[in-house]
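Technical note accompanying the year-one report. For the benefit of new consortium partners, we illustrate the data format agreed upon in the data management plan: each record pairs a sequence with a structure-token string. No post-processing was applied to the example shown here.
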Amino acid sequence: MANGMTPNVVLEPLKQWPHSVSLNEYLGRRLWNILQGPLVLSQDHIPLTWWNAPLAHSNVAIVHIMAYLTRRPGTYALRLFLLPLVIIATIRCTVQYRIEDPVYGCYNSLRGFVACAYIAKAVRFALVPEGTLKVGEERLPGLSSGLSENDKTVSGIILAGVRDALEVGFAVRGLSWQFSEGLYVPKSRRPLERHAYIRHTLFSILKAYLFVDIFDYFLGTLPGIDAYGLGGTIFPPSLPAPLRYIASTAIHFAFGIFIITGMSMWYDTVSLVGVGWFGHPPSLWPPMHDRPWRSTSLHEFWSKRWHQCLRDTFLVYGGYLGRWLAGDIGMLFGTFMGSGLFHEVGFYLGGMPMDSTVMLFFLAQALGILVEKGYRAVTGRRIGGWGGRLWVVFMVVVVGQPCTDSWIARGVGGRAIVPPWLSMSKSFLFPILRTVAL
């Protein structure tokens, strides 16, 4: 059994229809067998291999069918009908297949995060009656809209539909889409000429890869970080209290830089596809982060400086509901609650236990922003300057340490982010340094 636990099966599975039970009972049990995959995470799972990887990720194709439909008029009822099936398929594909090698265990959690992001996309695709509109569009285009006479063939229409589905399905921040309205866009710091942008981005990916690789190796060598990422901590128990918290602060800060660099590396990789294949102008791919260390308030940190790639995901998971229940304050807390749910459910779908510490951290950030609003209401001034910087450091670097510790304890630390066969640090960099040191 996966994780050594017994499945919580209510009904005995029936794969064939025995005549000893009624047809209704048989169909009911078969329906339960289909649904229990998403609902019961402790069932037997299938080892994820290169051979079954296409089947394990077949939900991606289903989500992109929904993405295609959200760009076609007259599909609202069909999208609503498909939504439960898309959610069930996404959860089941994520839960049913698991990487068994503990060295690569963190990829199970990454698959859980991707599943949560896809579910949020599917919910938006299904529930917006008018579909997903590009900036400047008033209604969805028809099958052959925008195609030249030469491309108005069956193959041309199919290819245009596939490109449309991939473009909206893989939209990161959605700068060319109406759902990104109100999104803060950092100023581009790269060349806007296409070939120069591609060269600059390739070099940036290489630099980020080297940093992620070195930090990945370094994190696994730290005392207190379990070799398989289970039960580790950023608070070294062997150190006395003052040194322990100095060490935890250093690890937490480095881990934040690691997240910024790692996410930027993947964002840059996707941007190459957008610019190189879809023909996006480089201006649609501004920096992922806008120098978070320059933040002088929590509001600035989370709404501008930190990445906004999952903004729409968090709004779907809690922001819109919060606004409906309690206006702007409800939207504030709902969005951060959506962020907490995203991270925790992602871990859970990846086979890790949930931890309320992460949710409490994100809710504390919402409370901190509310405190900033109260400060402005009382003093008439926004929080800022060095006082604002220290406030951000306290709320993110100090208050955030239990959150990082929770992630380390559940598999982010001590496991391979960069596969060993791709790791320059593990292959020759650190072995050479050890040889030289001896």
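Partners are asked to follow this layout when depositing records. The mean pLDDT is 83.
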